[in-house]
Amino acid sequence: MLKQLFTILICSFLVLSCSYIEKNTKRDPIQKIDTIVDFNTIDSYPLFPNCAEIPSKEKQQICFQMEMSQHIYASLKEFQLSVKDSVNDTIYVKLKIDATGKISLSNIQISEKTSALLPNFDSIVKVSLQNLPTLKPAIKRAMPVTTEFTLPIVLKN
Predict the structure, then answer these.
(1) Which whole number is the average pLDDT over 25-46?
(2) pTM
(3) In terms of C-beta density within 10 A (0-12 exposed, 13-18 middle, 19 or more buried), how is residue 124 classed?
(4) 99: part of which helix (H) or strand (E)?
(5) In the chain, N or C: fewer CB atoms in 10 Å?
(6) pLDDT in tens, 124-143
(7) What is the pairing mode between strands 138-140 and 103-109?
């Protein structure tokens, strides 16, 4: 009987001491982690080497668009496109920049009439993209991410 009483006493002491230790230990407050991710925005745009020093996100975007446009228009001028009929069209070129900074052509949205007048336009754009310098990829939450951009190319003669 004494042995059973002693065992019950020890067990109750252990249970009470565990709850006492639990109450008196200091716990770090739980940090809330932002789990809502906006997949439509990025923290930093892909950057050409001469745009890397620009601090503002808006100015980085403008620099990226200007550099990309200038490069593609310069490539188009090299090929001296000539057509029999007049062309007044906007072609939408969808570009993909992966997490390593490599750029590729995703899609070209071109009308049937313009495609018939300029059958090798997509290959010219592909060649011009191969000559681009290596870009710094877009950044989202301090990690490089893949992004897609649509570049409008206006053709008029």
Answers:
(1) 71
(2) 0.67
(3) middle
(4) none
(5) N
(6) 888 888 888 888 998 888 89
(7) unpaired
